[in-house]
Amino acid sequence: MQFTIATVLAAFAAVAMAAPAPSDASAGACTPATYACLDDAAGWQVCNTGGVWVFAGDCPPKTSCHFNPQNQSPYCI
Fold first, then answer.
1. 1, part of any domain
2. Is the dihedral of CA 62, 60, 68, 36 positive or negative?
3. For tag attachment on the chain, is the N or C end more exposed, with fewer CB atoms within 10 Å?
4. What is the pLDDT of residues 36-73, one digit of tens each?
């Protein structure tokens, strides 16, 4: 039983490590736990613990994302 559990866990680990990187155009090295507006200003993104930008949200209709450098946060206005 322990051998089976260990084998399954090893298989999952191998799959997770072999997963391709996101193909998002804005993907790139970033500092984890930082935020930025999307390139088109229609929403914002956050840097995950792996140092990759990931989509975080859309701005409401008739608003666009603006980044406040003072507090390092994006706002939809």
1. no
2. negative
3. N
4. 999 999 999 999 999 999 999 999 999 999 999 999 99
